Amino acid sequence: MSDTNGEDPLLRTAQVQRDRSLIAADAEQSRPQGTKNERDIAFDSAVSRAAHRDVAELVARNEAYNKSQADIVATNRANYAALEARSLRANLLAERKRASNANFGLGIVSVLLLAGLIAGGVWYFSSQNNANTTASAGVVAASASTTKSSDVSAPDRTPGTINVPATSGNP
User: Fold this and answer.
1) N or C: which terminus of the chain carries fewer CB neighbours within 10 A?
2) Residue whose C-alpha is closest to residue 39's, from 27, 51, 48
3) pLDDT, greater one: 118 or 164
4) What is the pTM of this model?
């Protein structure tokens, strides 16, 4: 965080404390040892109060900066949570749509398959009945053709005529 004149407050505070300690050290070296008058005590007290005031200002600035950073982080988290909720909602809607389309497709395929099976069954069983009827007629026709024509005569379809088989041999 920068001060209004572009300096870092921590650096400024450190410089002020260094200058004050240098001034205090020079003052102590210039006076004789063991004597401390009211003026020195007042000066030390003023330096101490100024240092405490500077530290309090620095702590207040740091707390304000930390609070602003915490507000920024909280805002970013809230924005991210809202974005995540919108994204999840959109994904859920898309997935529901895909599932609905898949269920519809499955239903159509099932109906078509069932209709095909029913049509195949009808065709199969109706062709079996025709084949059995044809096969029965073919068996009768085949058995009639295997018998000797001399033994059995074919029926005549003209009305009123009776065919009697001729006997071979003596009359």
Assistant:
1) C
2) 27
3) 118
4) 0.35
Q: What is the mean pLDDT of the chain?
A: 79
Contact 27, 47 (CB under 8 A): no
Tell me the pLDDT tens digit for each residue of 5-27: 566 777 778 888 888 888 877 76
Contact call for residues 47 and 77 (beta carbons, < 8 A): no
Residue linked to tokens 């109706």: 126
Share of the chain above pLDDT 90, in %: 36
DSSP code string of the chain: ---TTS--HHHHHHHHHHHHHHHHHHHHHHSPTT---HHHHHHHHHHHHHHHHHHHHHHHHHHHHHHHHHHHHHHHHHHHHHHHHHHHHHHHHHHHHHHHHHHHHHHHHHHHHHHHHHHHHHHHHHHHHHHHHHHHHHHHHHHHHHS-TTTSPPPP-STT----PPPPS--
Place of tokens 């300096």: 7
102, pLDDT greater than 70: yes
Cα 156 to Cα 153: distance, rounded to the nearest angstrom: 9
